[in-house]
Structures are given as structure tokens and as C-alpha cells.
Amino acid sequence: MKKTTLFLLSLLICAVAYAQPQLGKDKIEDVIAAMTLQEKVNLLHGCGMAMGTEVKFPGTAGSTYAIPRLGIPSVYMADGPHRLVMTPTRAFDSQVYNTTELPSEITLAASFDIDAARAAGELIGQEVSDYGLDILLAPGINIMRTALGGRNGEYFSEDPVHAGNIAAAYINGVQSKNVGVALKHFAVNNQETNRNANDAIVAERPLRELYLRNFEIAVKNSHPWSIMTSYNKANGKYVCEDRRLCEDILRGEWGYDGLVMSDWNAGRNPVASIQAGNDMLQPGQDRQRAAILEAAQDGTLDMALIDLSVKRVLEFILKCNTFKNYQYPNETDLKAHSKIAREIGANSLVLLKNEDETLPMDGVKNVALYGNTSYDIVPAGMGFGATGHGYYCVSLVEGLRKAGYNVDKSLIMPYQKHIEEQNKQNYPNGLPPFSITAPLRADELIPDAKTLEENVKNNDMAIITLGRACGEGADRTKEHFYLTDKEAEMIKAVADAYHAAGKKVVVILNVVSAIETASWKDNADAILCIFQPGCETGNAVADVLSGKVNPSGRLPQTFQVNYGDAPADKNFPYDYKFDMSAFARAFSGGSAKDAAERAERQAEHELKQNVDYTNYDEGVYVGYRWFTTFDEPVSYPFGFGLSYTDFSYDLEDAGMDSDKCHVTVKVTNTGTKAGRDVVQVYVNAPKGGMEKPARELKAFAKTRVLQPGESQTLNLEWDTDLNASFNEKKNRWDLAKGKYTFMVCKDAQSDPVLTSVIKY
Ligand code: BGC
């Protein structure tokens, strides 16, 4: 043999001997077998948050660990849900990486529109993909247990069927773009106060029927690539350390086969997290890595569990664009996305009142705007899911002007000056970038009688906007539910002045979640609840006010008369004073001092109710389930929303077999304007020896735009299993035999427009 051939042959032998298995080319098991223990442990953790401007994706929430020798890249995650959260600027780079701000989750859910939820998901998924990221840390789907939940704006509904179906459509939209989601926050994450340690004490039945059911529906109908466990404990255990929730129920019962990751710095015991089936700890801390390594070495943590979680991480990475070396364009079609954001926004606004056809604003030309929020609209919530609002927001003034209205100029400067002064006073060090203290908007400016008189003379109509901003990190308090004295006084003064001249007053609710409306609504001729419609707020609102779009949103949450009317209200930190330093400590994983103090309180039996723990004494009676069953008055019920037109309904078919239930309804536009309608099907189920809510939502659907006289037949279908209740005594779901009443209702409290009784 020639010398050169020999040399080449030996080179080949060496290469084969030292060849490393490669992810994607070789079997996952072989890749895992080639890893050192330290590498495996590293893979179970994130690589920190991308805080600098020179990192690959500045301002994003996290990434996974890379092992280049085995062909394993880092993959990248950024927050949602209504905007891909990423710093738009980068060091030594003149390009600006803007992302579209969609309507917030509560707003999107108010559309009651599966197609809109999917479109929102597709849009944000496209941006994630276009900018080279892999995972969107969204959507959040926890139940709005009270009106004051700090993250209500980031969640969809008080009802699990509503939340689960909207979420599934959103997730399918995102994932259709070859990027993944992290469905969050699994589970029972309904309060922000002491969010890293609060223990939700919830019985098995509400746990199953409300707080898990939303996740179950979303998981089964959309197969999210990953699920994020929540900060809180449920019944004594951190969720991320609870094997029953993460493994037995999520994977065992629901068949979920994706990755489970923790919320950022959630939990206390990293070893317990891996043992529970929470595969990845984000964003990853040295102390966690050390603890897992030590437990693996001393045998406390089973190697098989580590390998299983590593396998899940690798399967997750394999799906990602970064792994596939996708050549992303690094720009996205922002213009087209703004158009979609506007359509979704307008489609989500909820008309609560419309006396004497005040709206649309036919014949109105000149309008005067009152309320600070009219000049400082809130496009979205606060918190990481919303950090730094989008790159633009169409103000109400701009939206109205573009729609052809004259906005009274004399009020603009005084309001702007007033807002500036208030901000200076409330935030002497500048506006907080991340408003965890759930501020009330600045004190209202009440125009004096002379100004009002002038305004009334010069305008055809008054528009008042009430605003509430809030988000991650703090709950709202009772104060935020009610109007301030000044707000109430302003509404009264404006209404009196305009009504005296026979002119109308419209109130816009730019709120993060339900507020009090019962005491003042008589003063308004029309009320439009817009929640937070995102970057196109002004345009979307003008579209509905002008009648270009007929409103078709429905409330995803009950607007109760008073705080305290819902049974959960007393078991919620409704008057908790926000403690910034405790929040900051908890955010970075909690200090040893906090843990010691808590242990001391525990030993002394002095745990603080609604702070250290929260009792879910209301059981399944959350939201409309309470108000409707016990016939308690509300200001506006769940599912409520008016239109500029009318609809009639014909029942074409209804049925229930062991697998599926269905209701087929023909909806006809009987009014004079084109519009869309929402059909909501509620079921009253036989008791089967258990107490049950009078009705529960099982399905909903939205028509296309129907012209006057036009009809559409909708077939609403749901799994018969959804009619079952969880029997705590028998520890199983029970589908009672007897009479099922299927009701098509305009909202959760009104009399049904159609009824079908089925013997099962
Ligand atoms: C939030 C999550 C978010 C994560 C990463 C946490 O504080 O609870 O919703 O995805 O931070 O930014």
C-alpha cells in the first residue's frame, strides 16, 4: 500500500473514532449518551436573559444551552402574548427591529372569534419567524378569578371553554409559522400579590373544571411545543415541583408530549422540578445547576429522569428554525400587520350601551374629548408580556380626525399640560418603564362651567374616556375597580352640560379588566368597552364609532355591580399595599430571609391570608357561574355585547351522543345594517347528586358579516365529556344521566333565545 493511502486510511479511522453523534443526524439516545453529566445539567437550564444590546436578540427573555460538538444550537425565546417583546435597536446596527402591538389578550378574547384568534397567532408567529426567534412565550390562559387580577389583561376569560378555545386557535396560528409557543402559566395562576410564593388552596373539582380545563382544551386542540409552569403553589406545592400536575395529569391524562419549562425563577427546589417532570428551569441560575449536579452525583436524582428531560429538550430544539438553520429575512411586513391589528381590534370592541341609537355617530362632525385617557390612550397592559409598548400607537384624537371628525382643539393643550404635571408629581424620577404598581391614571381635569358651556356650543357630542393600566407584578386593588371621585364628578359635569343642550355623551372604557359601571352608566348615552386594542387603538375605535365597523365584541368577564359581589372577592388581596422591595427580591428567586420569615410565620400559624395563601372557597362559582346560578344582579354579564343591527335565530338541529354534542343555528340579520353576531351555547346539566351551576358555556361561534336580511347557519360542536362534572368523592369525571338543556343565549344571564331539551 502506498504511503499516502495509508496516511489517509489512518486519518479516516481517527475521524470515525472521534466522530461525535450529531443531533438530527444520529439517534437522540446516542446524542444523549455522548454527553457529560455537566452538559446534561446545562441543557436543563436556560442561558439567562438577553439584556445587553450586543447579544443576538436584545431584550428577549431567554434561550437554551448550546453544545456545538454534538450539533446542538441555542434556540431563542421571546415574550408575547400581544407583541413579540424584543428591544428594537442593536449595537452597531442602524436597522430598527419593530414588532406589531396587537390587541391584548382580554381584548382579543372579547372578539369571541376563533378566526381572529388564529389570525393574531399567525401574525405574531410570522414576526417571531421573520426575526429569527424560535419560541413565543405565550399565550397566558389562566382564569380571571376576580376583577382585580393583575394579569387579567394577559389572560382570555373567566370561562375555561372560552379561554381554551381562543388559546387553541391562537396557538395553531403561531405554530403554523413553524415557530412554537410556551402556553402559560400552568396552573392556578390567578393573583400577582406575593406571586412567587402564594399558595392557591383549591379543591379538586374547581381545579379540574376551571383551572385545568382551559389548559386541557388548549393542549388537546393545539399541541403547544412547550408549556410554562407558574410561579405560585397549588395546594402546598410549587406547581413546577408538583409531579401530579406536570406529569400525571398533563402528560398521563391529557397525552401531552412536549416540553415543560418553569416561569422565570419559579420554584425553590430545582431537583424537585426535574423529578416533577418540569424539564427546564428558566432563565437558569448557578445555584440550580449546582443542586441538580450534586443530586445526580449522589444518586438523589435518578439519571433516567435527567435523560428523559434532556430528551424532551432535544426534541424541542429539533423543531426549531434555528436548528434547521432557517435563513430568516430579519424584517417583517409591519404595514400589512398594522392592517390586521386594526381589523382584529375593531372586531373586539364591546358596545355596552346605545340609547336611542347614539352610535354610530351619524350626523356628528365636531366632538369634544374628556378624560386624561382620551389624550393618553392605553394600548396594552404592563409587565414582561407587554414591556415597552409597540413602536407606535394611533391615539384617539388621530383616529377620529382620520375618520373625518373635528376634535375640539381648545381641550388638547390643557389636557396635555395637566397629564404632564400629574406624571411629574407621581413619578418624580420619570415614568416607570415597567409599571408594576398598577397606577390609577392621573387625577381628572374637570372643565369649569364656562369651558363646558363653550364646548357644548361648539360640538355635537362629548366622548369621555376612562382608563386603567395594570399588569404583571401587582394586583389591582378595590380602588382601581371604582371610579375616583374626580372621574365620577367629571362624567356628571360633562353629561349634565351636554344633556341640557340635547346632545349625547359617549363613554369609552379603556380598561385592563372589569371596572365599576353601575353607579354612573345612566349618565352615558352610549358606552363602548375597548379594553386595550393595541397599536391601532384610535383607528379601531373610530371604525366602530363611525359605523364603518359594526361592533360585535362580547364581554369575556362579568362586570359586577360592586366589588365584593362575587364570592371570590373576599379571598383576594383587594386592599394589599404593594411592596416594591419584596417584589424585587421575589423576582430574582426570593431571598433566604424571605423564606426564613415565611417559615417563622408558618411555625407560628401566622401565615397571611391572601398573601401567603389564598382560599378558593367559592369552588366552581367563579364569574357568571355564581351570578347566574344565584340570580345576583350584575352591571353587564359575561358574553354581553350590543350591535347596530338585530338578529333572529332558528334552531335547525341539536343532539348529544356519547362522543359529541351539537347545536345547529340559523342566524339572520333582521336589522338595517350589516354586522356579525356571536352565538353562545350554554348547558344546564342534570345534577347527578352534585351541586351545579345553572348554566355553563360549552361552545361559541361568530358569523361572518351578514348583510340585512342575510342568514348563516352555524354548527356548534363540543365533546360530550365537556358536559361532565368532577366528582370529588369518587375522584373521577361523572356524566350524569337525565335531562340536558341546551340554550342559545345572548349572554350568560339573559333568557335563552333558543332551547333544546335532550334526554341522555
Ligand atoms: C412572566 C412570564 C414571562 C417571563 C419571561 C415572567 O416574569 O411571569 O410570563 O414569560 O417572565 O419574561
- State Rg: 27 Å
Poorly predicted ranges: 434-438
What would you call the structural class?
A: alpha/beta
Q: In which order are the strands of the major sheet placed?
A: 1-2-3-4-6-9
The small-molecule ligands in this entry are: beta-D-glucopyranose
> How many strands, what sense, and barrel or not for the largest sheet?
6 strands, mixed
| Number of alpha- plus pi-helical segments | 22
Q: How many separate structural domains?
A: 4
Mean pLDDT comes to 93
CATH fold-level assignment of the largest domain: TIM Barrel
Helix percentage range: 25-40%
Percentage of residues in DSSP E strands: 15-25%
Note the gap between the termini: 85 Å
What is the subunit arrangement here?
Answer: single chain
Q: Which CATH architecture of the largest domain is right?
A: Alpha-Beta Barrel
Task: Say how many strands there are.
Answer: 27
Principal-axes shape call: globular
> Please, what is the CATH homologous superfamily of the largest domain?
Glycoside hydrolase, family 3, N-terminal domain
Q: Kindly provide the name of the CATH class of the largest domain.
A: Alpha Beta
